[in-house]
Amino acid sequence: MATECTIMIEEGADGFLLSEVLELPGCHTQAKSLDELMQRTREAIRTYREGTRGEQATTKFRGIQRMTV
């Protein structure tokens, strides 16, 4: 069953791209290119689901906000 996930992508100081699946705590990966990152992210989601036996996500993405303190 296909589900929609929110992926946050960042670039590290070493040039690697990092992805984090916001609805799946601890589900993240890295790669050198965006295509490879998306492939690895799909694999990470599948692995995460296998480990949780397909249970639904425990969080729901609500948004991102910037703050100056």
Structure description:
It contains 1 helix and 3 strands. The protein is of the alpha+beta class and 69 residues long. It has a domain at 7-51. Strands 1-2-3 form a 3-stranded antiparallel beta sheet, with helices on one face. The protein is flat. The N and C termini lie far apart (42 Å). The mean pLDDT is 88.
- Helix content range: 25-40%
- Please give the order of strands in the largest beta sheet: 1-2-3
- Overall residue-averaged pLDDT value: 88
Query: What is the β-strand count?
Result: 3
Could you tell me the strand content as a percent range?
A: 15-25%
Helix-strand pattern, N to C? EEEH
Question: What's the shape?
Answer: flat
> Which class do the helix and strand fractions yield?
alpha+beta
**What is the CA-based Rg, rounded?**
13 Å
> Could you describe the largest sheet, including whether it forms a barrel?
3 strands, antiparallel
Helix segment count? 1
* Low-pLDDT regions: none
Termini separation comes to 42 Å
List the helices and strands and how they pair.
Blueprint lengths: L6 E5 L5 E5 L6 E4 L2 H18 L18
Antiparallel strand pairs: 1-2, 2-3
Give a summary of the structure in a few sentences.
With 69 residues, the chain is an alpha+beta fold.
Summary keywords:
69 residues; alpha+beta; 3-stranded antiparallel β-sheet; 3 strands
